[in-house]
Design brief:
The protein is an all-alpha fold and about 200 residues long. The protein is about 80% helix and about 0% strand.
Length: about 200
């Protein structure tokens, strides 16, 4: 599924959209779209300059979107139980602690933490990091991280893309098994609660 999705990305507009939704609307790390872009440069389908421009803008838009979610909904979002379960309570706590300890520069640190970026960006918005400071620190990170990741795709080509797809496919399987187990556990809890006699009866 992941490979087919990447293969269907068409041209620079498609690459821009792929980068902008990865990690937020699409449950894939942005690194997948960037490595894919590097492979496309290697095979001659994309050119370096527009590819770097499109990927930086696309990932930057995704980061700003995450920040604005936190800015708009604030601590209300981070304190919702269902959000904490979905995003991982400890991950949110670590993101908030990072912002509290480092201030706006935590955005730069978060940019290099795979699987942790969105939490940091949302926490930055929720905790009142100024938008200009967010853009500054995130922009610095983008100028380093995006070309480096695209470069990996360019240097190693299809083999590294195949490795990423292989890992993600197994991760999808693990997530699927985890969801099934969670649903079974919730059903068991609901059934046990219904069977448990009420005190005083």
């Amino acid at each position: 599924m992941i490979r087919e999705l990447a293969a269907n990305v068409s041209g620079y507009p498609g690459l821009l959209l792929f980068c902008a939704v990865s990690g937020i609307l699409l449950p894939l790390p942005e690194d997948v779209s960037l490595i894919y872009a590097g492979v496309k440069v290697q095979t001659g389908h994309f050119q370096w300059a527009p590819t770097l421009l499109v990927t930086i803008v696309g990932v930057g838009l995704r980061d700003v979107f995450a920040y604005l979610i936190g800015r708009s909904l604030g601590s209300w979002l981070l304190e919702r139980g269902w959000v904490r379960r979905l995003a991982g309570g400890p991950r949110i706590d670590r993101a908030q602690a990072l912002i509290a300890r480092r201030g706006p520069s935590a955005v730069l640190v978060g940019r290099f933490l795979i699987g942790f970026r969105a939490s940091v960006f949302i926490a930055a918005g929720a905790m009142g990091v100024p938008f200009r400071s967010f853009l500054l620190w995130d922009g610095l990170g983008l100028l380093v991280a995006v070309p480096a990741t695209v470069g990996l795709g360019y240097l190693f080509g299809a083999p590294i893309a195949d490795l990423v797809f292989w890992v993600l496919q197994r991760a999808q399987l693990a997530v699927g098994v985890g969801v099934v187990l969670l649903v079974c556990w919730l059903l068991w809890q609901a059934w046990s609660g219904r069977e448990r006699p009420v005190e005083g009866e």
